[in-house]
Amino acid sequence: MPRQLGELEDAVMTRVWQWNRPVTVREVLEDLQQERSIAYTTVMTVMDNLHQKGWVRREVDGRAYRYTAVSTRAAYAAALMNEAWSQSDNRAAALVAFFGMMSPEEREALRDAVRMVQEPEPERDREAEHGSEESPRSEESQEGDAPRDSAGR
After folding, report:
1. Model pTM?
2. 7-19 and 40-52 helices cross at what angle (nearest 10)?
3. HEC secondary structure over 23-90
4. What does the radius of gyration of the chain's CA atoms come to, in whole angstroms?
């Protein structure tokens, strides 16, 4: 489970995610220097640390490394939300409180995301098109947790 990125780690990863291409320490440094005074060695150390932690992969390019994000910012945010949610002793109440903090636009984005997750998978679509057979189990047995024998017990 990922821990939250530090302030400088986040500033570096934001650029790696936004640029969505292999980047050098020099490129990140020059962009960071537009908003703060920072040394090349500091950025190099942060990027090496991010590599050691598994956030970026790197490839040798001449005398430098090129760094690429291992996952997306969305995946990082989702992992943080999941970690925070898993710490709750009442997950439903935590979700209700979280939803209550959302703007109407955020709640609509959440509804869209839930619809995307609930859409049938392509395999189910193909089965529906070709009229796959119904499961031999009864509707009642599908609702229960325990499997039934051939006599329905």
Report:
1. 0.67
2. 80
3. ECHHHHHHHHCCCCCCCHHHHHHHHHHHHHCCCEEEEEECCEEEEEECCCHHHHHHHHHHHHHHCCCC
4. 24
Contact 85, 96 (CB under 8 A): no
Q: Which helix (H) or strand (E) holds 12?
A: helix 7-19
Q: Are 44 and 8 in contact (CB under 8 A)?
A: no
- Say if residues 65 and 16 touch (Cβ distance below 8 Å): no
Q: Which residue has the tokens 């979700």?
A: 95
* pLDDT of 150 higher than 70: no
Q: What is the pLDDT of residues 34-68, one digit of tens each?
A: 999 999 999 999 999 999 999 999 999 999 999 99
pLDDT-based confidence at residue 123 (cuts at 50, 70, 90) = low
* Mean pLDDT calculated for residue range 69-78: 93
Amino acid letter, residue 146: A
* Residue 116 near residue 108 (C-beta atoms within 8 A): no
What token pair was written down for 57? Answer: 């992969």
